[in-house]
Amino acid sequence: MNDALNAGLATLGIPLDEAQKQKLLDYVGLLGKWNKTYSLTAIREPERMVPHHLLDSLAPLSAFPAESHARILDVGSGFGTPGIPLAIARPDWQLTLLDSNHKKTTFLRQALLELQLPNVTVVSDRVEAYHPEAPFNVITSRAFAELSEFIKLTRHLLAKGGNWAALKGVYPYEEIALLPKDVVATEVKQLQVPGLEAERCLVLIKEV
């Protein structure tokens, strides 16, 4: 696992220190342990979790429109992707992981304790019912919903001038065409994830 992680990070051009790499591997170990009881992910082998969960979450890192100390919301975070890998890679960001599934948020809270991630908050709630004290600079998701629904459900959570950053598989031509008229996809960045044959892209969206 360590070799695959190191090679993948080198390919992506993401310089992490040894402590950060160990936290990523510890996250995979924790996910594998909980998965035996709670079936959090269909991927059972830790070796496959490295490309499918770690590198897939980190591949868009350089394209993320987030400055230092940005507030980022991961909607439908599930077992913590992309939120936890992003939080490990960027400890200067403040991430909130939102999911309505209590089984998954229980895992997330345990992961935060064991991985010691003070820059992460877990919220167990439906996205439309969530009203934080302050809006977010970036709202991201990984296979949460179609783009128009993603925008509709999270619009009240985005700060003025902020960005939506949706992780998708194949280029979502039809979903982009159906976006509300008052938002625009500013960029669709094709991602190459080491160890994955499947297509991946990051769709950046802003209000007009």
Automatic annotation (TrEMBL):
Subcellular location: Cytoplasm
Keywords: Cytoplasm, Methyltransferase, rRNA processing, S-adenosyl-L-methionine, Transferase
Protein origin, superkingdom: Bacteria
Top EC class, one word: transferase
Pfam family, one: GidB
Keyword Nucleus: no
A GO molecular-function annotation: rRNA (guanine-N7-)-methyltransferase activity
InterPro entries xref list: rRNA_ssu_MeTfrase_G (IPR003682), SAM-dependent_MTases_sf (IPR029063)
GO CC annotation: cytosol
Residues that bind S-adenosyl-L-methionine: G76, V127, E128, R142
EC number(s) recorded for this UniProt protein: 2.1.1.170
Reactions catalysed, as given in the entry: guanosine(527) in 16S rRNA + S-adenosyl-L-methionine = N(7)-methylguanosine(527) in 16S rRNA + S-adenosyl-L-homocysteine
KW Iron (keyword) present: no
Function: Specifically methylates the N7 position of guanine in position 527 of 16S rRNA.
PANTHER family, per the entry: S-ADENOSYL-L-METHIONINE-DEPENDENT METHYLTRANSFERASES SUPERFAMILY PROTEIN (PTHR31760:SF0)
NCBIfam families: rsmG_gidB
Family: Belongs to the methyltransferase superfamily. RNA methyltransferase RsmG family.
HAMAP family reported in the protein's UniProt record: 16SrRNA_methyltr_G
Protein name as catalogued: Ribosomal RNA small subunit methyltransferase G
Organism of this sequence: Silvimonas terrae
Gene: rsmG
